[in-house]
Amino acid sequence: MMNAFTPPLALALVDIGRIISLTLIAAGLLWLFIRAIKLKEVERRVIFLFIFISVAAPILFPTVFKEKATPVVKAVFDKIESLPPGSKVLLSYDFDPAMAPEVQPMADAFSRHCLVKGHKIIYMCLFATGQGQFTRTMENVIRPEFPEKIDGVDYVNIGYKAGNEGVLNVIISDFKKMFPTDVNAVPYDSIEVFKGIRSCKDLDLIISIGGGRPGIKEWVLFVGDPGDVPIATGVAAVVAPQLYPYYPKQLLGLLGGVKGAAEYESELVAHYSRFKDSPTPALLMMGPQTLAHIVIMAFIIIGNVLFIQGRRKEGKR
Amino acid sequence: MVVPARAVPEPADSLKADSVEIIIAPPTSPVVSDFKYDDGNSLILTWVPSIDDLPVGGKVLSYHIFRSDNGGEAKKIAELIPGANYYKDEDLYSDTNYAYHVVALSSNSRAASFQTASIRPQREWVNLNLKYLFFIALIIAASVIYFIETAKRGKKLFVRKIAGLEAVDEAIGRATEMGRTILFIPGIHDMDDVQTLAAITILGRVSRVVADYDTKIRMPVARSLVMTAARETIKASYMSAGRPDAYNDDMVNYVTDEQFGYVAAVDGIMVREKPATIFLLGAFFAESLILAETGNSVGAIQIAGTARPAQLPFFIAACDFTLIGEELFAASAYLSGEPKQLGSLKGQDVGKGIAMLAILLGVLLSTIAAVGDTETITDILNFITRVFTVTN
Amino acid sequence: MKRGVPLIITFVVGTVLIFSVFIPPMENLGENFTLFFDIIAVFAFFLGGGNLLRVHLTKLTRRKRDWEYSIVTIVGFFFMLACGLFKIGNPGDISASLTAEGSWFQTIYDNVFVPLGSTMYALLAFFVASASYRAFRAKNREATILLIAAFIILLGRTPLGTFVTGWIPDSFSVLQIPNLAIWIMNSPNLAGQRAIMIGIGLGVVSMSLRLILGIERTYLGGEDK
Amino acid sequence: MEHFALWLAAFLTLGIISFLYKDNAWYKLTEAIFVGLSAGYWFVTLFWDNFYGKFWIGKGEHAYLYVGAFLGLLMLLRLIPKIGWISRWPLSFIVGATSGLWLINYFSSNIMKQVQATIFPLFSSQYGAGFDAGAATVIGNLVIFLGTFTGLVYFFFSKEHKGAFGYTAKVGIWVIMITFGASFGYTVMSRMSLFIGRIDFLLSDWLGMIL
Asked: CA triplet B143, B146, B151: central angle to 5 degrees?
C-alpha cells in the first residue's frame, strides 16, 4: 500500500508505470475506434488483453481516480462535518468478515472523520463477529493515527448483545438496561462518553455499517423512526438498491459498496490534509474497477460504431 | 409449587445502590395455549410484563421462562429481553403435559409469575392458515387440467409462436448438414431441481428429432442421476424413432459434480469438437456466461433457457435464442405439438389472469384507500392482501 | 410393469407431496424426500464415477486424441479416493476428520481446488467484456433498450457518471446518472423481475402437473404405447 | 512445502487463464487435474456425509432411510441389462417427488408472494414534496405496477401479440429488456473483483511485486 514511507525512487517508478499503462489503454482504444469506423471488427482476444491490462496495471501501479461524492454520500459526510465538536455519534458494526472487504473501509473512514472532528464515538455491534471487526479499526485507525484519544473519554466500545431488534427496542429508551458496562467492565455511569446520554434519543447521529440482518432496516424501524434520531448507513453493494426508498426521509444518507466507501475517502482526503497519507483501501480498489468499466463502455461504443457503419455501407449498396 | 413473589412496586426514581435489593413486580396473567396448525409439537406462552418493566428507567433486566413437564421439576428453558410478552416453545411431544411460569429479573432480585395450567400440544390435521393458498392453487391446477381435457376432446387451441422453440428444428438441421455434433447441457443441478426436469423433458423432444435426422448428440453432465435419466430419455427417443440400434450409452457421460471443474471440461469439449448447435437449458449459475461465450466463439447456434433471473441477462447477451423463465417450462409441451400438452399452457394463462387481476384490483384499491380511506374499500383490500399472504 | 408402474409411482408420490404441505402431521415428508434423494445420489455415483473411468480408460487404451491427459484424470480420481476414503496422508487414523489440518485431502482442496475454481470463475471478467461488446448493439428497439439500461448502470458505477450529469439541478437530482441508475434498479428492474418470477411459478405448476398426471412421459419412453 | 503449494497454485491459475488465448496443452493438463480430483473429491464427500453419516452414525434413527437405500440399489440394476428397466422406478419416484415438492413451493414463493408484494398504493399522503422524494417515487411505483402487468401480458401464450394486446406485450418485453440490461451492468463490478482477486494472488502472493 502506498504511504509516506514509500521511497522516492519507487514512487517515480510507479508514476512512470501508471502513465505508460494509461497511455497504452487510451491509445489502443483510440486505434480500435478508428479501425471501427473503417469497419474492422475487434477480435475477442484483443478485448481480453485490454481487460487484463486495465485490471493488472492499476494494481501494480496503484492508480486512484478522483471520486466526486454523490448526494447520498455527501449527505453523510456533511452531517458529520456540521455537528459541533463533542457530539455523540454511535457506530454499529453490523457485519462479519465476509462483508468486511466492502464495508470495513467505511467503518474506518467514519471513525477517522468523527475523531478528527472531536466527536465522541460509541461503538457497538448487532453481529457477534462485529467485535473482531472493531478490533481492526482500533489497531489500524485509532491507535496509530489518534494515540491521544482516550478510551472512555473520546470513544467507548460497549460490544455485542444478543437479541437483534430486541436490543434496539431497549436502547431506544434506556442504554444502561442493555449495556450496564462497556466491554472492559467499566460501569455505565462512570463512562465519560455517556454523560448526558440516557437512550438513543440523546445521540446526534447513528451509523449502522453492514447491510445484513439485523442491520440498518432494524435500526430505522426500531430506533430512527420512533426516536426521531438521524440515521445513516454504509452497506454492501448488493443491498444498496433496496435501501434507497428510505432516503432521504428515514435515512439521511448511505454509502453503497466499495464505490460509496471510495467517495467518502476521497471527500475525507480533500477536506483534511492530515489524511493524505492514510490508507485509502476503497479508492485503491476502485482503480481497476473504474478502468475496467471504462474499457467495457468503450468497447460497447466501438461495437455500435461498427454496427452503424455496417448499416450505412449496406444502405449505400 | 411455585410461590409467586408479592412485591409492592416502588416509584421508578428511587433507584438505589446495587447493594440494596431492587424489588420488582412479577409478570402477570401467564397463559399457555396450543400453537395452531402444527403436528402437535409447539405451544405458545403469553404474559403481561412486570409493571416495573418500563421503557425508561425500568428495573427488569430479563425474563426467564421455566417449564415443568408432566408435573415434574420446573427447568429454565429460555432467557428473553425486557419488554418480551410471548414465547413459542417448539419440539414438544403431544403426549406430555406442560406448564410454565415466567420470572422477571432485576440486577439482584427476581419475581416469579403464577404457574399456568398444564396442557398438551394438539395436533391439527389440516393447516387452515394455508386455505387461500390451497384454493388458488386448486383453481389454477383445475384450469390446467380442464384445458388438457378440452384439448383431448379435439378442440383446437391456439398457442402463439415462441421464437426460441421455432428455431430448434432448424438448429438441429444445421448440425446435420454440417456433419457436426449437437451439445446438450442440462444445467449443473441434480434431478431434484425442476429446471433439470424441464431440461430432460425438452431433451426428449430434441433427441427425437436427432434420432430422425441421424445427427450426433453429445451430453456431458455434472450429476450421475441426470446421466441416468438422460440416457433413459434419449434411448426412448431412438426406440420410438424405430432406430434402437443407433443409440449408444456414450452419448451421455458424467464429468464431475464440481461446478467449475465441469465448466472447464465443457469449455474444452466446445473448443475441440466445435459443435454446430448448443443447448444450454436448466439451472445455471455463474458459469452461464462462461459457457455461452465459449460456445459463441466456436460459431455454434445457441439456444439457452433458465429459470434463474440472475443468469438470464447473460444468456440474452451471448446466445441466439433464450427461453425466458416460463418459456423453459412450456418448451416441452410446445415442441410436442400435442393438443393435450398445449392445453396445459392455456391453463397457465388463467393463472396469469388471476395474478394480473389481483395486482390491478390491489393497486387500485390501496391507492384509493391511501387517499380517501373509506372503510369498505379498506375491508376489500385487506381481504385481497390476506388471500395472497402466505403464513406458516 | 415397464411403463405402468413408473407412472403410478410418479402420480402417487407427487400427489402425496403436494397435499403434505397442507397436513401438519405430514409436514416433514418434503425433508425426508431430500434425505432419500441424497442416498440415491450416492448409489448413482457408482454409475457416474464408473462412467468417468470407462470413458478415460477407453481413451487411453484406444490411444484416442489427447489420451495422455486421461492418465492424469484417472490418477487424480484414485488419488483423491485414497486420500478421502482411506485417509491416506491424514495425520490421524481412519476415524480422523476428513478435513483435518495438514491432511492431503485438505491441502489439495486449499491449493488445487480453490485456485482452480476461483480462476475459472474469474474468467467471467473477460467474458462479461466480450459479451457486452458483441451484444449491446442497437440492432432493434429491444436491443437498444437493453444497451441503454446497461450503459447507464455501467456509467453510474464510475466517477464519470457523477461528472457527466453533475450540472443537473438538485430538484431534478433523479436524472443525475448515479441516481438514475438506482431508480432503474429499483423500479423497472424490479417490475421485470416480478413478471419473470410469476411466470416461472406458473410454468412450474403446469409442468409439474403434466409430469404427475403422466401426460409428459418422454423420460420414460416417448410416445409409444 | 508451502513454497511448492504456492507455485502449484500459480501454475494452475495461469493454466486456466491461458485458455483465453487458445486451447493448449497447459489448459488441457489443468483441466484433466481439475476433473479427476474433483470427481474423487465429491464422491468422498458424498460417501462420508450421506452414506456413512446417515447409516453408521445416525443408525436406526430413521428406519425409512433404508427405503432410500433400496431405491438406490434398484438404480444400480441398470448394470444388469435384462432387468435394467427396474431402474425407472427410483427415477419416477424422484420425478414425482421433485414435481410435487416444487409445485407448491414455487406457487407460494413465486406467485403468491410476488403478487402480494405488488399490491401497494401508487401514491400516499406520506410522501414528501419535491421532485426526488414525491414525483420520482410515484413514477417509480407506477412503473413497478405497469411493468409487472405488461410483463405478464408478454408471457401470455394463448393470444397472438397483435393490436392493443400486442402493444401491451411490447411494453412488457421492453421492461424485461431494461431488467436484463440493468442486471448485466450491475454485475460487472462483482465479476471484475473476482479477477482482481486472482491478479492480486499472482502479483503479490506469488511474485511479491506489490509494495
From this structure: 125
Find, in chain C, the residue whose alpha carbon is nearest to that of A257.
C157
Quick one: pLDDT at residue B15?
A: 43
pLDDT tens readout for residues B370-380: 877 678 888 88
pLDDT digits (tens, 9 = 90+) for C106-144: 888 888 988 999 999 999 999 999 999 999 999 999 999
State whether C52 and B256 contact (CB < 8 Å).
yes
Topology classification of domain B157-337: Rossmann fold (3.40.50)
Where in the sequence is the domain holding C145, given as residue range(s)? Answer: 126-186
B1-124 belongs to CATH 2.60.40.10: yes
The pLDDT of residue A128 is: 86
Count of domains observed in chain A: 2
Query: What are the respective helix, strand and coil percentages of chain A, to the nearest 5?
Result: 60, 10, 30
The helix/strand count (H/E) of chain D reads as 7, 0
- B304's CB contacts (< 8 A; 6+ apart) are B279, B280, B281, B288, B292, B315, B319, B321, B322, B323
Residue C204 clears pLDDT 50, i.e. is over it: yes
Contact between residue C19 and residue B126 where contact means Cβ atoms under 8 Å apart: no
C-alpha span between B6 and A181 (Å, rounded): 30
Does D73 contact B at CB distance below 8 Å?
no
pTM of the complete model: 0.89
Per DSSP, what are the bridge partners of residue A90? A122, A206
Residue contact B318–C134, C-beta within 8 A: yes
In this structure, are residues A264 and A286 in contact, taking their beta carbons and an 8 Å threshold? no
Q: What pLDDT was estimated at residue D59?
A: 57
- Residues from chain B that touch D152, judged by Cβ atoms under 8 A, are 352, 355-356
| pLDDT on residue D154 | 95
State the average pLDDT for chain D.
Answer: 87
d(Cα C28, Cα A279) in Å, to the nearest integer? 53
Segment B49-65 mean pLDDT: 84
Which of B56, B49, B51, B14 has its CA nearest to residue A174? B56
Question: Are A164 and A19 in the same domain?
Answer: no
Shared-domain flag, residues C74 and C163: no
Which residues face B86 on adjacent strands? B46
Closest CA–CA distance from residue D11 to any residue of chain A (Å): 18
